[in-house]
Amino acid sequence: MFKNLIICGCSYSIELGEPFHYETWPSLLTRYFPKMVYKFPAHIGVGNGYISRTVLYNVSESLKNFESNEILVGVVWSGISRKEVYHTDKLPINVWVGHDGINNPCKIVKDYKWNLIHEAMDNDVSKSVYKYDNDVIHHTLSSYEHILRTQLYLDKHNINYFMGVALDNTIMSGPDHYLNTHEEIKYTYDQINLDNFIPVSSMFDWGKQNNYLQEDGHLSIEGTKKFLKTQIVPYLISKGYILNK
What we know:
alpha/beta, 7 helices, 4-stranded parallel beta sheet, single chain, about 240 residues
C-alpha cells in the first residue's frame, strides 16, 4: 500500500545520531514498512513552525514521484515556545549547553539559514525575542496554527497521516483546558482533528509516568521500544496503516 514514509519532528523523532546512539522510534517503525522510501527530516531542538514546513516541503517533493495514497506521514509536535527565523545572514545564535553538536542554523529546503531560537539559549537574539514574545496564549495559538496548516495541507492532497506530541500536552488535555477554551485559541483548537493523534498526552509524560525517561528528558532505549509497541503500532493498526498479523 505505502511506498514512502515521512516522519517529521524534533529530537524525539530523529532517526539516529546525536544525542542518541541507538535506534529511535522512526528507525524501529521501518521494520513494519519494508521496501519503502524513507524521509526522516526531524531535527534536534526545532519548534512547530519548522516541523510544519518540513512536512509541507517533503510531501510536495514526494508527490512528484508517488501517488498520494502511497505516502504515509508521521508528525510529532514539539514545545510550543520554540521558534525559528529565516535570515540571509548568520545570526549570533548558539546552541544549548551540552548539545554542541546541534546544527544551528539548519535547513528545510536548501540553505542552512533557519535559525533556531529557544529560551534556553543564552544570546542577545533569543533574549530579545522572548522579552517581547513570551506569552503562553500566543505560543499555544501559533502552535495550533502550525498544526492546522499541516492538517489542511495533508487533507487537501489526500495523504494518510498520524500525529503525536513530544513535549507540550495542552492539545491533548481536552476541550475544557483553560487554554483550549480561551477566546483567542478555541476557534483553532476546534478545527484540529484529534482522531489523527496517537492518544497519549505526550511522549515526555508517558516516559515520566512509566519510568522510561533518561536524564536528558528523552525516552530510554527500553522506553522507545515500549512506546512504539504499546502506543504507536496499535494506533496505526486501528487506522489500517499496519495489518494486524
